[in-house]
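Technical annex, item 7. During the second reporting period the consortium partners agreed on a shared format for inverse folding records so that results from different sites could be compared directly. Each record opens with the tokenized structure and is followed by the designed sequence. A conforming record, contributed by the partner at site C, is shown below for reference.
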């Protein structure tokens, strides 16, 4: 594992893409490549759940344990009231709390993954706040987060020096190689 005594060497990368562009799929492939290199990977993924071709839910997966919970469902499909609705989605605050607990327990890792940092975190001060805390003060070599294009400026303002890679501009394998080059340098 990389020696993380100094925070000076930390690198932060944002993977930018529109809704449905494959940000989470990219992170799954990256996670596999990082583990193949013997790197420790911690954090949260938020894969979509489909019913046929219709996206009906979003899960939250803790990369260390593999545990998963439902993060959000389409608001139109939720019968009981929820505390947090944003866009078309009804978010389950107990899952957000669980995700933040998972993120808070990370002591050190080679690569920290946060999928996705968006308006909940950057505008509303909700969502994966423990992930933002990890980006600021955690012990890691590389922080990789996904973000929608509309949130890139807010993210870079909050985390100056973050290198932004657009999924539109990169082929998956080339971007994975670029990230491996960065983390292994």
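Designed sequence (site C submission):
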């Amino acid at each position: 594992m990389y020696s993380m005594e100094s925070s000076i060497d930390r690198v932060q990368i944002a993977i930018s893409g529109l809704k449905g562009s494959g940000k989470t799929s990219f992170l799954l492939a990256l996670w596999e490549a990082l583990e193949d290199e013997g790197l420790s990977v911690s954090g949260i993924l938020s894969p979509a759940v489909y019913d046929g071709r219709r996206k009906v839910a979003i899960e939250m997966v803790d990369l260390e344990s593999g545990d998963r919970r439902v993060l959000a469902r389409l608001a139109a499909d939720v019968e009981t009231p929820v505390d947090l609705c944003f866009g078309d989605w009804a978010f389950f605050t107990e899952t957000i709390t669980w995700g933040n607990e998972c993120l808070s327990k990370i002591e050190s890792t080679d690569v920290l993954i946060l999928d996705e940092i968006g308006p909940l975190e950057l505008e509303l001060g909700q969502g994966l706040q423990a992930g933002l805390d990890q980006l600021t003060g955690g012990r890691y070599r590389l922080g990789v987060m996904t973000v929608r294009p509309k949130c890139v400026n807010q993210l870079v303002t909050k985390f100056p020096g973050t290198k932004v890679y657009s999924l539109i501009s990169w082929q998956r394998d080339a971007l994975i190689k670029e990230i491996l080059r960065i983390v292994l340098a």
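Confidence is low (pLDDT under 50) at residues 1-7. The domain at 11-46+61-67+92-184 is CATH 3.40.50.300 (Rossmann fold). All partners now use this format for quarterly exchanges.
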